[in-house]
Amino acid sequence: MLEFYRQMLLIRRFEEKAGQLYGLGLIGGFCHLYIGQEAVAVGLQSALEVGKDSVITGYRDHGHMLAYGIDPKVIMAELTGRAAGISRGKGGSMHMFSVDHGFYGGHGIVGAQVSLGTGLAFKHKYAGDGGVCVTYFGDGAANQGQVYESFNMAELWKLPVIFVIENNQYAMGTSVNRASAEDQLYRRGESFRIPGLQVDGMDVLAVRGAAEEAVAWVRAGKGPILLELKTYRYRGHSMSDPAKYRSRDEVQAVREKSDPIDHLAKELEALGVKEDDLKALDKQVRAIVAEAADFAEQAPEPEAGELYTDVLVGDY
Amino acid sequence: MAVELKMPALSPTMEEGTLAKWLVKEGDTVKSGDILAEIETDKATMEFEAVDEGTISKIVVPEGTDGVKVGEVIALIAGEDEPAEAPVGDAKPAAEQKPAAPEAKPEKAPPAPEGGGEPAPHQMETAARELVASASRSPEEPEVPAGTELVKQTVREALRDAMAEEMRADDTVFVMGEEVAQYQGAYKVTQGLLDEFGDKRVIDTPITEYGFAGIGTGAAMGGLKPIVEFMTFNFAMQAIDHIVNSAAKTNYMSGGQMRCPVVFRGPNGAAARVGAQHSQNYGPWYAAVPGLIVVAPYSAADAKGLLKAAIRSPDPVVFLENELLYGQSFEVPKLDDYVLPIGKARIAREGGDVTLVSYSIGVGVALDAAAKLAEEGIEAEVIDLRTLRPLDKATVLESLKKTNRMVVVEEGWPVCSIASEIMATAMEDGFDDLDAPVLRVTNEDVPLPYAANLEKAALIKAEDVVAAAKKVSYR
């Protein structure tokens, strides 16, 4: 539990720092922060086996990488577009990958990762390697056509894929019920016979519990399963979103009543963990993030020649 | 009088077929809707239904006969009140039937005899036939060491063999798409693969291009080597996001971490009278995208050698075939492992007076034009680009240096085309070698019309290539 706490805190502090660096002009382009949704990636990925399973998500991807224990320095350096970044500075915030960890991105086109993740699950089944693919997407992507094309084939072919809808209530500025005829998104697999569970995405232990259920279902060869994680993002859709579509009170209420980190802190304290210990942990995490930020600011930009590398693998 | 049953045209490109099986015999009474026979076309085995009622008075063409031309009388039906006697017909007796001609011949069928007051089935009018005719007059010899045994093969068979050989060699190679397995391929390109490799590796998908293109791409990211067949590249428009955004860019965006060795293949370009939405050449679209390899072969040998190379490539490959060429036969080297290099054009015909640059079915048109030009004393060099990305500029420029004149022949639209790119290349890198502006012969800049006469007006023609070549030669 303490490790969950540490990971969520790391994501929170990392994203706060990323927001700061964006404001300083050190991070460019689009930058989508995961603040508020930390329990989802941490709870789910704690139930996976690194090296056996695979994970894929959309452009709000920093949290998923941190939850997989990928070095914050190379993530932050990617955000600042440096050669030391995990994609050598050529991907940026939305396009980060770690094939070593089975983390397949980081995709900028809303919903694309759902078909791709289903393809990764296809690979697990084809190779018979026992792995499963966790495919994250948002409530916005849940209205894309290819999601349902993928649901159909995933169930038809009994592919080992866990579809995870991170329902943070807003597809950019459009709330779920303004965009979705069926706003209970866990039911979206019903016509494909894919079972769905609705989970409190602000409670890391509930998420972990649901993840264990889902992994067991999928590993048993029963085909895909759909999890709807009810969560909330505190920040705008991206750094350039003023978030005028919701009230400050709404955000404040979630922060006060349902914050996943505060929630876990209370549970830890109830188990006897001292407040000072949590504070010490926070200090430790802040130091890691500060170090990552320093590294990301100081690391050199890619060599000019990098412009032409990795377009193709073969020589033709 | 007796009604003549004539060989029907059962597909847009069908010229002749095999009368595989009669399901009725002489003397049987049939009514409208009864299945009379099974006819094998270039694509599939079709059932032939009765339209008229009556008694089968004579079966003119016995079952098992190959090469029965569209419009030929295959049986006679006597009306209800007529005696079922053998009629006088001008149909050839079965014994005179030609032996099996394995592939469609482009020449027109003999005019079908009129009978029964109904219009006789005849070959559909289409300008596509002329494209095919150019191809059939223009066989390419593969580049192989002297003495290599050659076998005649259709492009269709060559593509299938390429896939089968690579699937035998590497069990991470699989093929997925609509109707690739049980149906044996909408255009029979995957014929027999299901039997040999089973349904784990030959996978029928629902009609869901975006979804299965994404699944194929994801499987490639995971380390498999998928061959994703599109029934035609027109349908790949639904999937172009995955081809361009997911497959082409990921290796770059991941700093070289994430490979995507997928092959997207299927027929591309105009077919026969299928109208605007089914007739488009996507070569220039995909060739514009860094991170993709784009191959568009002409001959069966190139189709085989390049598809094998495409499957082995560690990069995503868009492999553009041509429906009209599927049935064309070419010499293919009989070698255990015939693989050609991606990114290398080929001199399909040597000549010193003018260079004709083309790819895919346009090569047939260019070669046809070159033969006509030769009659007028102009020796054209014909370059088959074969790969559209990366483009073999060196071969093009070398030829330009020799001939100083160039015409680009492209079965596709003129604007922002491969022709545009070749012309720009000639300007940028071959300006001093030009004795005349480079010209392009392309399809008309309109959606492809359905009407036979308009279709003909819209597609490239050898005469236009001849005219352009003469123009750049100032003759």
Précis, in short:
The complex is a heterodimer of chains A (316) and B (475). Chain A is of the alpha/beta class and 316 residues long. Chain A has helices at 2-23, 38-45, 62-67, 72-79, 112-127, 145-156, 176-179, 204-219, 248-258, 260-270, 275-298; strands at residues 54-57, 103-106, 133-138, 161-167, 170-171, 174-175, 196-200, 225-230.
For the record, the CATH class of chain A is Alpha Beta
CATH class descriptor name of the largest domain in chain B: Alpha Beta
**Strand/helix succession of chain A:** HHEHHEHEHEEEHEHEHHH
Q: Count all strands of chain A and give the number.
A: 8
Structural description of this entry:
The complex is a heterodimer of chains A (316) and B (475). In chain A, strand 3, helix 6 and strand 4 form a beta-alpha-beta unit. Chain A is of the alpha/beta class and 316 residues long. The model of chain A has no long low-confidence stretch (mean pLDDT 95). Chain A has a single domain, classed as Rossmann fold (3-Layer(aba) Sandwich). Chain A has 11 helices and 8 strands. Chain A has a 6-stranded parallel β-sheet, with helices on both faces. In chain A, helix 2 packs across helix 8, helix 4 crosses helix 11 and helix 5 packs parallel to helix 6. With 475 residues, chain B is an alpha/beta fold. Chain B has 3 domains: 86 residues, Beta Barrel (OB fold (Dihydrolipoamide Acetyltransferase, E2P)); 191 residues, Thiamin diphosphate (ThDP)-binding fold, Pyr/PP domains (Rossmann fold, 3-Layer(aba) Sandwich); 127 residues, 3-Layer(aba) Sandwich (Rossmann fold). In chain B, 27% of the residues lie in helices and 22% in strands. In chain B, strand 18, helix 9 and strand 19 form a beta-alpha-beta unit. In chain B, helix 4 packs parallel to helix 5 and helix 10 crosses helix 11. The longest helix of chain B is centred in the middle third of the chain and has 15 residues. About 7% of the residues of chain B have low confidence. The interface between A and B is large, with 49 and 46 residues.
